[in-house]
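User: Fold both of these, please.

Assistant: Here is the first one.
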Amino acid sequence: MIPFILRHPVAFSFAVLLHIFILLGLTYQNFMSPDDNTIQVTLTSPDDKATGEKTTVEKMKPMKTTLLDAKTVQAALDKVKKEEADKKRQQKELAAKTQAEKRRIALLQQQKMAERKKIEQAKLQTEAENRKAEEAAKLAAIQKQKVEAEKQRAIAESQKAEQAKKEALLAEKQRQEAKKQVEQAQAARKAEEAKKLALQEQIKQHSEEKKLLEQEALKARLLKEQEEQETQIQQQIAAEEAKKREKAKAKQLQDLTEVYKTTIASAVRQNWRTAAKISDKAECLITITQTPNGMVSSVKVNQCNQYANAQFKKDAESAVLRSQPLPQPPMKELFDRNIQFKFKP
């Protein structure tokens, strides 16, 4: 009963008022009816044939009701139905709005989840790209180191090839000189043989002179051969000494050149200044173009490793400029307009 009253409060109130109104109407009718309230009744026994005794009995009052206007009742019922219909319509509209709001909230939640998923995917993609970039940088650094090592190996091979070429040219020169000496010796021997033949013709006539001439010729030939051998030995010794001197001079020049470059690198390192935090592993190749008096025409900082940042390059260039005039070479012929060295503070 109570749930019904809660669902239909207007209809329940109207029904209560209607019953109260009917009860008031009945009460008012009983008070306002005529006074003819009794009737006369004769009581007769079934076995008694005589006339029965008359008794007075109170007459029951007839129930009178107040007639209500049908239009009023119908109007009230219509009003109740209309209110119920309006309430149901409002409930349906409220339910529809609630469902629409739930769908909207669900859609917003789906969109929010989709946006969150996109953000997560973008974050994962960014992390993956960063990892790829770091791996690419590491591979590039490794490749750069390989290229540098290959370059150094190529330079060493080129120097070896140049040295071998010089040695081959020297050997060829020595071979040509030896060939020339052999040809001269052969010509001398041919001349000697011709002379010997001439002497032999004369010796036919003069046997004793022939023997003497043969002995003198033999002595002369032996002496000449000995002199030639000694000359060849002296030439070989001189060539070996010259070769050793050339190697020693080249080694000395190379050592002095390295000392010269090391002196410049040390001067740059002493003038190194920086306010930034630089890794101890930072390293770059510095290329300097200078004038004969040690003034810097240009400076380039390149071929840096992964630990050298832009500030490191800038400070390295400033250190070179602060080092001018650059140290002079120990020998004028060692001066090089273009200087390259590895810089690591």
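And the second sequence with its predicted structure:
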Amino acid sequence: MTLTLTDLLVADRPDSWREVGFAVDGDVCRVGAVRIRLVGPQHGTGIVGWALGGVPGDTRDVDGIPTTPAPADPPAAAQAPTHPNGVTHLDHVVLLSPDLARTGAALGALGLDVRRERAGALGGTPMRQLFYRLGEVILEVVGSPETAGAGPSCLWGLTHVVADIDAAAALLGERTGPVKDAVQPGRRITTVRGRDLGLSVRTALISPHLRRQDRQ
């Protein structure tokens, strides 16, 4: 069975997400096929859990990340709303791992295979990125290729696709940084300055993939 990301639990207030151009219904922000449940800072900070479709029913943890199995036969998903900032879907979720081998084994036990690997650096420190697929969403696992530490993995950041990145940046103004070239060829990206607005998740907006644009 294919694993899919259905829900993310985020310890932010709904108003913080509305401030950066997301449409929020109650405490739920639907981005593409993913429900982002804004449970408030009383539950911690950042992304505090996720729900995955296709995992065994007794799964409660994936390498330290609180996990809930999605219903085996969920009801038909409601149509995602139109977001004022132009977001259309979630491109990828970043998972920070203190031990890449351990995290890879935990994901492999669920039936996930590495689709791609990339060497990089974070603050001058060598890093390795491992890419997996969770339905329409990419899971990007980041960690040191040389050292292994203790402690749990954590879901650290979200990158959303916007139909028009220049329009999104103009709408948000000082709430987002400069638009620059992304690592992926032909794409452009900007980082939301959300800390002062109450966002505890590192959030970026990125232009569509070239192949997706070519089909439009």
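DSSP finds four helices and 14 strands in the chain.
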